[in-house]
Amino acid sequence: MTDLQGLANIAEILGALMLIGGAIFGILQIREFRAQRRQAVAVELTRSFHNLDLVRAMNLILKLPDGISAEELRSKGPEYEEAAIMISATYEAIALLVFRKMATFSMVRELTGGVAVVMWQKLEQWIAWMRQDLANPSWAEWFQWLAAQLARESTDKDAHRAYERFADWRPLD
Fold it and tell me: Cα(119)–Cα(132) distance, rounded to whole angstroms?
């Protein structure tokens, strides 16, 4: 009877260890999945900035003065408003990815921080007009949020650019 009790105790301990091991394995798998998801998002974000249509849109908008009015933007031609919509939609999606923690803020700041803030400065008045025209106060709300976050956090990055901060960087392999 004692041997049977000892075997039962060992089986109980092994069962508990297996349960703990399974839980640890599950946690590690979830972490790995999240890391892979972030890497996939990073790759897609990088690809989005190699989209020729977006590059053209940014090129058009960069030539405009900060705070351009809707009338001025429209007077430039339909391609300018299409560019503004494309930029707004792109940054809207990026901002939501950051907010939902699918993309890290630091990665987005490194990838597009200054450009996003400049695009917001150019388009802020046009977006305000669009919100009124569409009777939709949430038009480009995430773009605005992202630009505000990036502007608030940009002082350190602007003070120490990548080529200065990482001047001593060497590959590990």
Answer: 20
Rounded Cα distance, 3 and 9, in Å: 10
Per residue in 18-57, pLDDT (tens digit) is: 999 999 999 989 888 888 887 777 777 777 777 899 999 9
What is the tens place of the pLDDT at every residue in 68-113? 999 999 999 999 999 999 999 999 999 998 999 888 898 888 888 8
pTM: 0.74
Please answer whether residues 167 and 116 qualify as being in contact, where contact means their C-beta atoms are separated by less than 8 angstroms.
no
Domain that holds residue 157: 49-165
**Cβ atoms within 10 Å of 55's Cβ, excluding its own:** 11
- Considering the domain architecture, whether residues 158 and 106 belong to the same structural domain is answered as yes
Q: Are residues 20 and 95 in the same domain?
A: no
Identify whether residues 17 and 68 lie together within a single domain: no
How far apart are the C-alpha atoms of 114 and 157, rounded to whole Å? Answer: 9
Contacts 24+ apart (CB under 8 A), 166-169: none
